[in-house]
Amino acid sequence: MNEEVNRNVYGSLIFCSQCGNLLDDPGSSQSLLCEICGETKNCDQYEGIEILTQSGPNAFPSALRNKKSLVQNDLSKMREEAATIAQTCEKCGAEEMEYHTRQMRSADEGQTIFYNCRRCGYKYSANS
């Protein structure tokens, strides 16, 4: 690879040597065309370029990861707010369960009560 090509390639990005514009992927074309200054380059001169990249797990935040952390925060908050009740677990027979309430339906209807067994993790809900 020649020195001019080396100066215009940063990672997997190729820039125009005349104006510095980021060049688009040529697709099936055999040449790169700069949309700003019109310079064209033969794609063959960019073949064989080795690209080595390294990133950490949090380098590119995603919407899914953000939602996951929001849900985890909500769950831990619910756990902190959960009260206990003398209610027998249907699965393991534990005599005490955690519960919390949420208004899931319209305001003129009752709340939904969510029960969680601390011992076995069994969960169920009931409308009040």
TrEMBL record:
Binding site for Zn(2+) 1: C16, C19, C34, C37
Family affiliation: Belongs to the archaeal rpoM/eukaryotic RPA12/RPB9/RPC11 RNA polymerase family.
Keyword DNA-binding: no
Pfam short name (any one): Zn_ribbon_TFIIS
Domain of life: Eukaryota
Residues holding Zn(2+) 2: C89, C92, C117, C120
Localization: Nucleus, Nucleolus
Gene Ontology terms, MF aspect: DNA-directed RNA polymerase activity; nucleic acid binding; zinc ion binding
TM annotation in the entry: none
Organism of this sequence: Dimargaris cristalligena
GO CC list: RNA polymerase I complex
Sorted UniProt keywords: DNA-directed RNA polymerase, Metal-binding, Nucleus, Transcription, Zinc, Zinc-finger
Record InterPro entries: Rpa12/Rpb9/Rpc10/TFS, Zn_ribbon_RPA12_C, Znf_TFIIS
Role, per record: DNA-dependent RNA polymerase catalyzes the transcription of DNA into RNA using the four ribonucleoside triphosphates as substrates.
CDD domains cross-referenced by the UniProt entry: Zn-ribbon_RPA12
Name of protein: DNA-directed RNA polymerase subunit
Principal location: nucleus
C4-type zinc finger locations on the chain: 16-37
The TFIIS-type domain, residue ranges: 85-125
GO biological process, one term: termination of RNA polymerase I transcription
